[in-house]
Amino acid sequence: MEPIRIKSRSVAFFVTAALLAMAATPALASSHREAPFIAGQPKVDGTDLYMFRSYESGKSANVTFLADYIPLQDPQGGPNFDEFDANALYEIHVDNVGDGKEHLTYQFRFNNASKSTPLTVGGKQVKIPLVNFGGVAAGDSSKLNVTETYSMKLVTGDRRKGAAADVFMTDGVTKTFTKPVDNIGNKTFGSVANYEAYANQYIYPINIPGCKPGGVQATGRVFVGQRAEPFYLALGQIFDLINLNPLGPETGGNSNDIYNKNISTIALEVPIACLTNGTEPVIGAFTTASVRQGRLINPKPASNINSASKNGGAWSQVSRLGMPLVNEVVIGLEDKDKFNSSSPKDDVNNFADYVTNPTLPALIQTLFPSAPAPTNFPRKDLIEAFLNGVYGLNQPQFVTNAKATNPSFVAAGEMLRLNTSLPVTAYGSQKSLGVIGGDNAGFPNGRRPADDVVDVSLRVAMGVLCVATGSTDTFKVGCKPSDAPAGSAALTDGVRRVDTDFKASFPYLNAPLPGSM
């Protein structure tokens, strides 16, 4: 495999394409119902996080975040379509230092209001049981019976103690944003294209608080709404004891089991200049959802769709997501809720054994004896990948410097990491295998919608890094090729999509499937 030359912070590094996969955590699916508590709280269940330099034409100076929530939505989801929890706090956190702590946090709060629209029935005014009472179109939402809005804040520093600023639209006045209603069906909207025209009204230009590079107010974009599920995998076969041929064809070998589902997305585009600290181009990100510690069921709710419970007390984090589905297939059952309530800075103390002695490779070996698991324990290669990012690709300088003085240093914790100084790969030219496919703008350097994180992660779990580092351990990851007999295997779940399967512009994910045709 030809080496790829990566330039970062004016230093050139030579690493093989296979080596660059090391930042991928051993994940097998997007994070749906991954922990006992969150399985019963779908409104605050984060499923996937994407972070990449924006590849829409003319937008490469920005980073796009896509935080998906509310898993496995059936398009025919009425009469109560999927809304964000008005009593929850949704957040996208950015670590622009490398110390495992949030330094910038975008917060989202939602409000759901009913118009209490009545019909006259036998001389009485009776409220209707539906979210709409007629067709809906771009510029005309008068027939909607429910309106969902949200507000945003940017917190600098600690998410609870830092300085908070309201996020306004670029008019400098408006700070209430509207979420489009879900795609009820083609009788309501006329067609999927009509729904997309309607939803596009709610892509808002925003001012980024406290960010004025060159004295000019920086702007970004936000969109919150239902999208077609972007993740792809052979879900049923993977969780039926990997009931597939892991060395079969990489494309078309199996079906994408969640292609007919929708998801709810928080999409945010922010200039790179407003995310980095001025000297460090690498940023890390994770998304969380929190609810109030106390929730009292209201036995006699008022005529208000938000009055079924009363909530109070401090915020309690119940969902966390960075790299794809670490909690579902890496963290042990008894610790899954603990992981969802934790912070990356505490991962080393709380969850290190799940990384250094992972169960996934052992399970693969049990099911496929001809694919022996790596034998290097503790798995220092995965510690590097899981906690620190790839040296020369997306490892923060903070970590590199600390390791130079303390080789056993382990910083931060699990999150997506993106080197914002690496160039964008244009739409139509992206490689679904990301870095191991020769495309340094893809996973594990951030994550784009088309990146095949399943195939990449399977290969990393089985020791591709040990093969790449060579017998002299060129990359100082504590293993060698003989430690990973199956490290060169092209493992796959047989499902793949490409960048042109998605949109070329913000918010990149496709329009949701309609409730009826």
- Ends: how far apart? 48 Å
Beta-strand residue fraction: 25-35%
Q: So what's the overall shape?
A: globular
Radius of gyration: 23 Å
The biggest sheet, with number of strands, parallel, antiparallel or mixed sense and barrel status, is: 8 strands, antiparallel
Quickly give the structural class. Answer: alpha+beta
Number of strands: 17
Low-confidence stretches: 1-29
Helix content: 10-25%
- Structure annotation, total helices: 11
Overall mean pLDDT score? 88
What count of structural domains?
1
Order of helices and strands: EEEEEEEEEEEHHEEHEEEHHHHHHEHH
Account of the protein in words:
With 517 residues, the chain is an alpha+beta fold. It has one domain (3-501). The chain is built from eleven helices and 17 strands. It has helices at residues 186-189, 192-199, 235-239, 326-329, 336-340, 347-356, 360-367, 380-388, 397-405, 453-461, 464-469, and strands at 3-8, 11-16, 46-53, 62-73, 88-95, 104-114, 118-121, 124-127, 146-156, 163-166, 177-179, 204-207, 219-228, 262-271, 282-297, 309-321, 416-419. The strands form four sheets. Strands 5, 6, 9, 10, 11, 15, 16 and 17 form an eight-stranded antiparallel sheet that branches. A hairpin with a 2-residue loop joins strand 1 and strand 2. The termini are far apart. Mean pLDDT is 88; it is low at 1-29.
